[in-house]
Amino acid sequence: MVVLTIVIDFFTSINGIFYVLAYLVGGIPFGLLYGKIFGGINILKIGSGSIGATNVLRALKEKKPEIAKKVAFLTILSDALKGILVLLFAKSMGLTYEAQWMIAFLAVIGHCFSPFLKFEGGKGVATSVGVIGVFLPLEAILGLIVWFLIGKFLKISSLASLFGVLFGVGMSFILHPDIPYIHTHTPLVLITIVIFYKHIPNIVRLIQKKEQKVI
């Protein structure tokens, strides 16, 4: 009974409510929804089966090439905003920075392991950039620049994502050796680990030189 009481108290507290909200909102599979709405397709059964923008782009290029890039961009924007909006709501409610960073991490976890997709999901890059940008906008921008440049010249989405994340998070150790308010890089490191874990199949294909390019 004591354990049950503790669990109930936690999940009915303001922090607990926001943690659950972050996970659920982070788990909304916008790529899947947009694929069905705009293309009448199930991207879970096409290409890599990912709900991310790259798979949305590839899938729609075959059926509706005229809107493929627009829907892919909308997917990126939506995946980034879902974490940002929960964080801004939490800020307005006066939650501590420690709680806000936990919310950021859980939004990424929700995207990568969505409760709406049997705990499968996307790679977490757009959502990560969004939530990190709330706290460390310069690092997020630098990561996006690296992502854009590698994506533009090498045309390999996974490589661009991995290097963008590594560069952005790596720069945080230089620009903010002491992360404001929480004094630790742990949330950033954990987010990076999750992203790399979700990219393991891509990393294997990169090593084997079998990773597809985005044309």
Automatic annotation (TrEMBL):
Main localization of the protein described in the UniProt heading: membrane
Protein's recorded name: Glycerol-3-phosphate acyltransferase
Listed transmembrane segments: 16-35, 71-93, 99-117, 129-150, 156-175
Pathway linked to the protein: Lipid metabolism; phospholipid metabolism
Enzyme class: transferase
Subunit organization: Probably interacts with PlsX.
Biological processes per GO annotation: phospholipid biosynthetic process
GO molecular-function terms, A-Z: acyl-phosphate glycerol-3-phosphate acyltransferase activity
Keywords: Cell membrane, Lipid biosynthesis, Lipid metabolism, Membrane, Phospholipid biosynthesis, Phospholipid metabolism, Transferase, Transmembrane, Transmembrane helix
Family: Belongs to the PlsY family.
Catalytic activity: an acyl phosphate + sn-glycerol 3-phosphate = a 1-acyl-sn-glycero-3-phosphate + phosphate
EC numbers on record: 2.3.1.275
Xref: NCBIfam families: glycerol-3-phosphate 1-O-acyltransferase PlsY (TIGR00023)
UniProt-listed InterPro entries: G3P_acylTferase_PlsY (IPR003811)
Stated role: Catalyzes the transfer of an acyl group from acyl-phosphate (acyl-PO(4)) to glycerol-3-phosphate (G3P) to form lysophosphatidic acid (LPA). This enzyme utilizes acyl-phosphate as fatty acyl donor, but not acyl-CoA or acyl-ACP.
Signal peptide interval: none
GO cellular component, one term: plasma membrane
SMART domains: G3P_acyltransf
Record bears the keyword Transferase: yes
Origin: domain of life: Bacteria
Membrane topology category: Multi-pass membrane protein
Provenance organism: Helicobacter apodemus
Record's subcellular location: Cell membrane
